[in-house]
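User: I'm new to structure prediction. If I give you an amino acid sequence, what do you actually give back? Let's try with this one:
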Amino acid sequence: MNVRRSAAALAAATVVLGAAVPAVAATAPPTASPTPSTAIPAGLYGTADPTYDGVWRQSLALLAQHTTGVAPADAAVTWLAGQQCANGSFAAFRADTAKPCDAKLTVDTNSTAAAVQTLAALGGHGGATQKAVGWLKSVQNADGGWGYFPGGASDANSTSVVAGALAAAGQRPAGVKKAGKSPYDALLKLSLPCDRAGGGAFAYQPDKKGGLAANADATAAGVLGVLGKGFVTTAGNASQGERACGGSSAPLTPDEVAHNGAAYLAGAVAHDGYLKSVLPGAANQPDYGNTADAVVALAALGWTEQARKPLAWLEQNAAGWAKQSGPAAYAQLVFAAHAMGADPHAFGGTDLVAQLNATGPAPQSGAKAAGATASADPKKADDSDDSDGSGPAYSLWLIVGVFLVVGIGIGFLMSGRGRKRQP
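Assistant: Good question. You get back a string of structure tokens that encode the predicted 3D arrangement of the chain. For your 423 residues, that looks like this:
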């Protein structure tokens, strides 16, 4: 998720710097929380500047609460719903919702899709979710995918989060097509063949020459995307077969592509139990957010045995990261625990739900979110109708990373979760 949420800030920095900087960034190490340049609105979770991830972190926080049976505060839900533009889209953050959205406000697919997944799960927002889905369909690319911003080249992360939103809203992603192409078609093109380095993985986007480079962040997202699943899922029922990347002379099915992506992730976490990220000039370091996403992806396919080691590593090591990084990080860990059937209230000695609740307005007292514990998928709970955890470090280290990229001419910073970033 790091890639997705980094895109907005990097795009803004590109305008300021006058340089083309790809939308890929690494998860930053913990640092002191910077002073927000924007006032934190009432109802919003987290205390970091919401400019680049307000809707994203709010969506994940409320969805995580709902998933654990917590009824979010009315003020928090109202804040999220109120961020929607008249055409159905969402921006990362609207400081003044009394002012209609205009061309100066940059809306994006990721914020919109995340909000759809959450509002669909909470129920009672059918009109808003359908309008948002209508907008997402209107900006679908001819290859069947989506870019972070409308009209941008399709990428695995954006296409996957939109596929999850479509499913949450009760639609079949494979049936949502542009020029005869579906989200699955776009994702299949971003999957690396087994006979290449990083075989089975997904690339974020092709490079300028059309080449594909394995990206763990994009792979975790891509597995969920081709399976038609969103942020919240339970363990699948994969057959007991070969857990290696496999190909055939015929075009691969979505399930086969998901299998290959899972094989890549399983191999990546097999030794240490976690994925790694790296900032230019820095040593490899654990990537907590993308490791959590990998657990969800592996579990979604039914590869729970391969997901146990990274889940155990997160239980032992991720509490400090989540405390530093804030609501979206707590949400990622909740999703990982939920996917594996673990208790988020006792996650390595940490009550993730209580910690998440403490980052924003108190949930409804004693209430349970209807259907939250009975349904694995948001769409099933709503049939009646960074970040991502890189935290406060996001703002400071992202800016440092952008200037470093521009200064030394690095093509891109390899991803390392969630837009993953804020408290």
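You can read the tokens as a compact description of the fold. Here is one thing that stands out. The chain is about 45% helix and 0% strand.
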